[in-house]
Amino acid sequence: MNPFWSMSTGSVRKRSDTEEKTLSGELRTSPLRGSAKKQLPSIPKNAVPITKPASPATSSQSTNGTHASYGPFYLEYSLLAEFTLVVKQKLPGVYVQPSYRSALMWFGVIFIRHGLYQDGVFKFTVYIPDNYPDGDCPRLVFDLPVFHPLVDPLSGELDVKRAFAKWRRNHNHIWQVLMYARRVFYKIDTTSPLNPEAAVLYEKDVQLFKSKVVDSVKLCSSHLFDQPKIEDPYAIIFSPWNPAIHDEAREKMLTQKKKPEDQHCKSMHVSGLSWVKPGSVQPFSKEEKTMPT
Q1: Calpha distance 246→252 (Å, rounded)
Q2: Is residue 211 part of a domain?
Q3: Residues in domain UBC core (predicted)?
Q4: Scanning 20, 53, 74, 216, which has the fewest C-beta atoms within 10 Å of its C-beta?
Q5: Judging by DSSP bridges, how do beta strands 105-111 and 94-98 pair with one another?
Q6: Element (H, E) at 29
Q7: pLDDT tens readout for residues 236-270
């Protein structure tokens, strides 16, 4: 037998029955470290979310699988991420601004630059559900009802559910709703319309349809400078051209637009000496100058 092994085994003192019972009792009563359940820290008393649910019942329930008290904060984070995606998409002719009073309401405007609705400027409001992104799809309502097969002639609401029958979390985003709202003015769809008159005219009398579209565009343009229906500091407001205010802003925008062109011209500018001797095609050749002696 290995002498080291025999020494180690012989040096171990046998525990008494009393010690065995004491140790076993301690092991039974001591809590396991791995069994401790992780808990979220308590929310500070002064922390109040900007976005408040419309109904008190929503706040008492668990939102998005998160602790109920964290639901509003998670909602604000989701909406902030959605707005960041909208900015990154850079949708042509579409501008949105979240409301100051509630992040669940966004103000927007669409500029139509060609097609049947050319020169159209349509202001709208996006209404986002309280339980976003697990609820229904956001609603988009135009300030003035636009003559369009997919726009309700009374309420001005766009048929968004046509494209988003079921809102899928982490798959559908608000920027897609905005892109859809822009696309309906370039590609007319007349199936199951909210405005049957517009759908019938588009299919049977295009000229009369165009005439009514022009009237609708002019009507929206005539109310472009009206005060917003909802009082909000961040509501989109148009004002007539004022040279004292707008000239300076226009110059700044044009200057920023010219900067990339100036940098491109600078990069194209050739500086330095030519390393090709006149009358020669050999690179790095230059005239040899004799030094005076």
Answers
A1: 10
A2: yes
A3: 74-222
A4: 20
A5: antiparallel
A6: helix 17-29
A7: 999 888 888 888 888 888 887 665 555 555 555 55
115: tokens are 């097609």
Give the count of domains, the chain: 1
- 239: which 2 tokens? 């004002």
- Domain span including residue 205: 68-221
Side-by-side strand order, sheet with 94-98: 94-98, 105-111, 121-127, 139-142
**Residues 171-205: tens digit of each pLDDT:** 999 999 999 999 999 999 999 999 999 999 999 99
Whether residue 246 lies inside any domain: the answer is no
Query: At 118, which CATH number?
Result: 3.10.110.10
**Residue type for position 100:** Y
Asked, for residue 216, whether it belongs to a domain, the answer is yes
Q: Which of 133, 35, 38 is nearest to 80 (CA)?
A: 133
Total count of residues recorded for the chain:
293
Q: What are phi and psi of 103, to 5 degrees?
A: -75, -5
Place of tokens 């630059």: 113
Task: Let me know if residue 190 belongs to a domain.
Answer: yes
Local structure of residue 66 (DSSP, 8 states): B
The DSSP call for residue 255 is H
* Cβ neighbourhood burial of 189 (10 Å; 0-12, 13-18, 19+): middle
Q: Which two tokens stand for residue 84?
A: 């960041």
Residue 101 CA to residue 49 CA, distance in Å, equals 11
3-class DSSP string for 131-196:
CCCCCCCCEEEECCCCCCCCECCCCCEECCCCCCCCCCCCCCCHHHHHHHHHHCCCCCCCCCCCCH
Q: At 111, phi and psi to the nearest 5?
A: -105, 120
Note if the pTM is more than 0.90.
Answer: no
